[in-house]
UniProtKB/TrEMBL annotation:
InterPro entries: AcuC (IPR003085), HDACs (IPR000286), His_deacetylse_dom (IPR023801), His_deacetylse_dom_sf (IPR037138), Ureohydrolase_dom_sf (IPR023696). Belongs to the histone deacetylase family. GO terms for biological process: acetoin catabolic process; epigenetic regulation of gene expression. It comes from Arthrobacter zhangbolii. Pathway: Ketone degradation; acetoin degradation. The keyword 4Fe-4S does not apply. The keyword Nucleotidyltransferase does not apply. GO terms for molecular function: histone deacetylase activity. It comes from the Bacteria. Residues 30-325 form the Histone deacetylase domain. Keywords: Acetoin catabolism. This is Acetoin utilization protein AcuC.
Length: 402
C-alpha cells in the first residue's frame, strides 16, 4: 500500500492555543521544552492553518478540581497543589519532584491548563460546533490516577474522554501512537468497558515505561478494551504502518466508537533523542490520515487529537504537529509544502538549528498490508500476531484473516 496524498474536505475545527500553555516548564535542560509548542504554533500560523475558513482558535483554561477528580484521586490532586505552592516539599512517592517530573512553582495551574485545553476541545466537539479539535499541547498519557510519571502531571486526554462519557457518549476509542506506551490512560480506563485504549509503541523491553505488552487486555468486565502493539526497537516506516493498519482499523471498527480521541506523540521520529524507532514525519501524518478517515466513517467525523512526546524540539515536533493540524483542517499543507523561510530563519537564530526546506522528510511511504500474508520469521509480524491473537477473538474477529 502507498500513502494518501488526497486533500480532505474542509472540516469545522478548533485548535487550542495560547501562550499561557508555555508555563508547563520543567526548567532549562529538561527534554519537555516549551519551545516545541511555541515553534509549532508559529509554524502553523505561518503556513496559514490558523486562518483557514472554518478554523477557530480555542482558549485553554485552568481545569477545576472537579474536572481533575474525574480521572485523578483527591490525594494526588492535593499533592500536586502542595508541590505547586512549595516545590521543595514534593511527595516523590506520587512521582512529584523527581528527575523526570520536577516540581516547579505554579505546576498545578500549568498542568491543569493543559487539561482545560483538552476539555475545551471535547466540549467543542460535543456541542456540534466543530467535528475536529486539536490540542497539540496535550497528550500527557503517563499521568496515572494517583501518580505523575514520564514528564506528565495531569492526564488531559483521559479527562477529555471522561468528559465525553459524562455527557452521554457511550463508546470512545483512544488511539496512542507515541513511541512510549500510553500506560496512564490505559490504567485509568482499565476497568471501563466503554473505552478502548489502543497503543502502538516501542516495546517495554527497550523503552520506558516497560509496559504495554499484548497480554495487557483490560480488567474484569472490560476484557478486550486495552490493546497494545509493542514494536521492536529500530522499527521503521514500513513495519510501523503495517502494524498500525493490521490492528487499529479492525478493532476500532469492531468497537464502533461515537468519538475518537488520539494522542500523536512524535518521539517515534528517527531523529528523536529519547527513543529507538525510525519513523518519518510522513508516516506520522499517514497515521493521522487513517484516524481521520476512521472518525469520518464511524463517528460522523468526531475526532479530538492531542500532542504528546517529542524531543527534537526544533526540526521535528513543529513539522509533525503542523501536519497533524493540516489533516484535521483540510489536508492542504502536505509533506512537500515548503517550510516558510521566515520560520526557518527564526529557528536558526533562536535555536541554532538549520531545518530542511519542506514540511516532510522527503520519503516515499509504502507498507505491506496484512492481507498479503504473515511471516513468522519477521519480528514485527510476530508482534502483530500476538496482539491479534489476544484481542481479535474477543471482538468476533479472526486473528489470521480479518
Amino acid at each position: 500500500m502507498i500513502s494518501s496524498g488526497l486533500s480532505l474536505p474542509v472540516m469545522p475545527t478548533c485548535i487550542v492555543w495560547d501562550e499561557s500553555l508555555l508555563a508547563y516548564n520543567f526548567g532549562q535542560g529538561h527534554p519537555m521544552a516549551p519551545a516545541r509548542l511555541e515553534l509549532t504554533a508559529r509554524l502553523a500560523r505561518e503556513v496559514g492553518l490558523f486562518d483557514v475558513e472554518g478554523v477557530r482558535l480555542e482558549q485553554p483554561y485552568v481545569a477545576a478540581a472537579a474536572d481533575l477528580l474525574t480521572v485523578h484521586s483527591y490525594e494526588y490532586v492535593s499533592a500536586v497543589q502542595a508541590a505547586s505552592a512549595d516545590p521543595a516539599g514534593s511527595d516523590q512517592s506520587m512521582g512529584l519532584g523527581t528527575e523526570d517530573t520536577p516540581a516547579f512553582a505554579g505546576m498545578h495551574e500549568a498542568s491543569a491548563r493543559l487539561v482545560g485545553g483538552s476539555l475545551a476541545a471535547a466540549d467543542a466537539v460535543l456541542s456540534g460546533s466543530v467535528l475536529h479539535a486539536v490540542n497539540f499541547s496535550g497528550g500527557m498519557h503517563h499521568a496515572g490516577r494517583a501518580k505523575a510519571s514520564g514528564f506528565c502531571i495531569y492526564n488531559d486526554a483521559a479527562a477529555a474522554v471522561a468528559r465525553l462519557l459524562a455527557k452521554g457518549v457511550q463508546r470512545v476509542v483512544y488511539i496512542d501512537v507515541d513511541a512510549h506506551h500510553g500506560d496512564g490512560t490505559q490504567n485509568i480506563f482499565w476497568d471501563d468497558p466503554r473505552v478502548m485504549t489502543i497503543s502502538l509503541h516501542e516495546s517495554g523491553l527497550t523503552l520506558f515505561p516497560g509496559t504495554g505488552f499484548a497480554n495487557e487486555t483490560g480488567g474484569k468486565g472490560a476484557e478486550g478494551t486495552a490493546v497494545n502493539i509493542a514494536l521492536p526497537a529500530r522499527t521503521s516506516d514500513a513495519g510501523w504502518l503495517r502494524a498500525f493498519h493490521a490492528v487499529v482499523p479492525q478493532l476500532t471498527e469492531a468497537f464502533a466508537p461515537e468519538v475518537i480521541v488520539s494522542q500523536h506523540g512524535c518521539d517515534s521520529h528517527t531523529d528523536d533523542p529519547l527513543t529507538s524507532l525510525r519513523i518519518s514525519v510522513e508516516a506520522q501524518r499517514q497515521a493521522a490520515l487513517t484516524i481521520s478517515d476512521l472518525a469520518g466513517r464511524l463517528c460522523e467525523g468526531r475526532w479530538i487529537a492531542t500532542g504528546g512526546g517529542g524531543y527534537n524540539v526544533a526540526s521535528v515536533v513543529p513539522r509533525s504537529w503542523a501536519l497533524l493540524m493540516s489533516v484535521a483542517v483540510n489536508g492542504k499543507v502536505r509533506p512537500a509544502t515548503p517550510l516558510p523561510a521566515a520560520w526557518r530563519d527564526y529557528v536558526l537564530e533562536k535555536h541554532g538549528v538549520r531545518c530542511g526546506e519542506t514540511m516532510g522528510d522527503g520519503v516515499d511511504l509504502w507498507w505491506r498490508s496484512w492481507e498479503v500474508g504473515y511471516d513468522p520469521n519477521d519480528e514485527i509480524d510476530r508482534t502483530v500476531m500476538s496482539t491479534r491473537k489476544e484481542l481479535f477473538p474477543l471482538h468476533g474477529l479472526d486473528p489470521w484473516f480479518d
